[in-house]
Structure formats: structure tokens, C-alpha cells
Amino acid sequence: MLLLLLFIGVPLLEITLFIQVGGTIGLGWTLAIVIAxxxxxxxxxxxxxxxxxxxx
Length: 56
Fold this sequence. Notes:
Blueprint: H1 2-25, H2 27-55
Helix pairs in contact: 1-2
């Protein structure tokens, strides 16, 4: 039951925060930050994933 509440509650909280941040700093900056963090995260996954495979 707790897991179900987390699966519903966390995305709702995230959407609420996106709306609040977007209202504060504007849609363009919000999208820029989201895209920048997605690119950074993808780069980190690629680099750490390759390093982890080399360590095996």
C-alpha cells in the first residue's frame, strides 16, 4: 500500500513543483533546466556505465 502511495504521490509532487518553478522563473528557463539536467544525467550514465563494465 505504501509503495502504491509513493508511485502516485511522487509524480504528483514533481508536477506541482514543475508548475511552481515554471511560474516563478518562466517556461523557457524551466525547460532549459530540465533539458540540461537530462543531458547531464545521460552523460553521467554513459560514463559511469562504461566505467562499471570495465571494472567487471
